[in-house]
Amino acid sequence: AEQRLPFMPYEPIRGDAARWRLAEHEIDAVLSGPGDWFAAEQRNLAPVVIQACKDTSTVDIAWELAAASGSFFLLRSFHDELRQVHLAALTACAQAGRARGEAAMIRGITVMRIMAARYEEAVADAERALRIFAETGDECGRGSMLGLRAILRRKLGDTSAAIADAQASLRIARAGGFRLMEYLAQHTLASILRERGDLAGAAGHAAQALSIARALSQPAHEVAELITLGAIHRERGRFEDSERHFTEALRIARGVGHRVYEANALVNLARSRVISGSERAEETLAESLSLSRQLNLPFANAANLHTLGILARGQDRADDALRHLETAVRMWRAQKATFQLACTLEELGRTFAELGNADRAREAWREAHAWFDSLGNAAKAQQTAGLMAGVRRRPR
């Protein structure tokens, strides 16, 4: 049932828990509507896992059920249940000496820490799980954790190490036929290369990831790749192509009920429409703001504030733009979102310059330049250096 869900966060890992064969009609009912089955059983999943944790003879059932239900909990944003079952099963596995189960639960906890921007803690978790998977000879688990560590290293600004981890994960995926792992490695490489300014390389990896997501019937991952490709088109100034990718991503996300991905698609569609001057820009941005606030999504909220700043500056409302952009900068710092922070600082510098505050403009561009340089984005670093030089030449 887990593998039929429209979203799986990583390659499944199975253990030796006993299986009970269901009647054929029961199997058909579950597999024809796995999301409905998980939804119907939602209230029972956590209690069953916790009960199974109490007996060493059922610990394998506990961690496998916790792992399998994790995809559903993430799909529906049931983060409390996700945390509860993984922590309970982790403790039980550690006490019972179930190393693979322990590492599988750490993997789920690592994803939760990434979502909460607790990257340093997540790195420690990833190293621990990597060590266990290596000791137990589990290449699926090791490749999966290399992929997660690549995400963490990207978030912490170590892009060269992130690329190395993603490439190692990709090699393991191809050697073992782990298609979902291959998708995730391709997606991570696309994201890193986009942030480094290698749009052609990013587009190549994103296209491969999109093909895999479609082959696996993973619509949520298809949405993620459509968003990535749409962002690349936007950064190349191809607004018709970006519009097409973002609207398709939005349609799919709504179809599978993944509200977070719906919000991400809306955020990007709104940004493109504002930049391109679409007559639907303000309407789309208002819809995006409403959904991201409703879901309390820090990333989407900060991105929408950046877009509000662009819109306000374009409407000669520099004071409003300044307020939105400074708030977005504070939010990006809290989330440790380096690339987004650099982009917002660049826009903030332009706003200060329009207000005649050359010192603050240089300050914002100087920091943006440092972040772009640390990411290896030579083009953006050169652009911000040019902005700093230009503002210095202006008469006082």
Pick out the low-confidence regions: none
Beta-strand residue fraction: under 5%
Tally of DSSP helical segments: 19
Question: Describe the biggest sheet?
Answer: none
Helix content: over 70%
Description of the structure:
The chain is 81% helix and 0% strand. It starts with 23 loop residues before the first helix and ends with a helix. It is mostly helical and 396 residues long. The longest helix has 19 residues.
What key attributes describe this structure?
globular; 19 helices; single chain; 396 residues; mainly alpha
Strand and helix layout:
Layout: H1 24-32, H2 34-52, H3 59-75, H4 79-96, H5 99-115, H6 119-135, H7 139-155, H8 159-176, H9 179-195, H10 199-215, H11 219-235, H12 239-256, H13 259-276, H14 281-295, H15 298-314, H16 318-335, H17 338-354, H18 358-375, H19 378-393
Helix pairs in contact: 2-3, 2-4, 3-4, 3-5, 4-5, 5-6, 5-7, 6-7, 7-8, 7-9, 8-9, 9-10, 9-11, 10-11, 11-12, 11-13, 12-13, 13-14, 13-15, 14-15, 15-16, 15-17, 16-17, 17-18, 18-19
Give a quick precis of the structure.
With 396 residues, the chain is an all-alpha fold.
